Amino acid sequence: MKILNAYAGIGGNRKLWGDEHEVTAIENNKNIAKIYQDFFPNDIIIVTDAHQFLLEHYKEFDFIWSSPPCPTHSNLRKGLSMNAGAKAVYPDMKLYEEILFLIGYFKGKWVVENVNSWYEPLIKPYELSRHYFWSNFPLPKKTIRSGKFSITGGVNKEHGNEQVLRLQKEFGVDLSKYSNDERWKRTLLRNMVNPELGLHIFKCAFKEQQQTI
């Protein structure tokens, strides 16, 4: 099976998928792409714009996972604009462009992941572990702690290094050799999808095939 992992980050969603499939990962930051490649040496990693790549290559894949950037949709970012002087921004509509594109054109299984938004979603999603998911297959509820949204209420009582160590342990990754910048590592880890959640959704996509084996 050929899989597209768009906006791959360091591959939290992909971590437990195994190596029997051909995975192409798209990440536009070359430093993050290097970490992904170290973690998943058998995957094809391409440093480019995932939004454009999806448009041009979607027919080549059997399963597509897309995680477009989430900050402009988040309650946290809106709160910073309203209360902390951050610049107001338009919500990035590439999220809904991709959902509608996959609904209309893609014949395989697909899922788009994003943060719970500060507004009522324009297309109704599934909600699992404080994420929104849009997909063309059922996603039953499954409670999984997600490091991406483990800090609630805008208050983080952990020091940066403490949170990095906890999330590395929780997700089973080690970033110690990549940077001394704890804020950067914390951002990478909080942007990960919990690997157990990624596996749950992956299994849901192909539940019918699994039942017939």
In short:
With 213 residues, the protein is α/β, with parallel strands linked by helices.
Structural description of this entry:
The chain has 213 residues and is α/β, with parallel strands linked by helices. The protein has a single domain, classed as Rossmann fold, CATH 3.40.50. 36% of the residues lie in helices and 15% in strands. The protein contains eight helices and seven strands; from the N terminus they run E-E-H-E-H-E-H-H-E-E-E-H-H-H-H. The protein has helices spanning 30-39, 50-57, 75-83, 94-105, 160-171, 182-190, 195-205, 207-212, and strands at 2-6, 22-26, 44-46, 63-66, 109-115, 126-128, 131-135. It has a seven-stranded mixed sheet with strand order 3-2-1-4-5-7-6, sandwiched between helices. A hairpin with a 2-residue loop joins strand 6 and strand 7 (131-135). Helix 5 packs across helix 6 (182-190). It is globular, with a radius of gyration of 17 Å. Mean pLDDT is 88; it is low at 146-156.
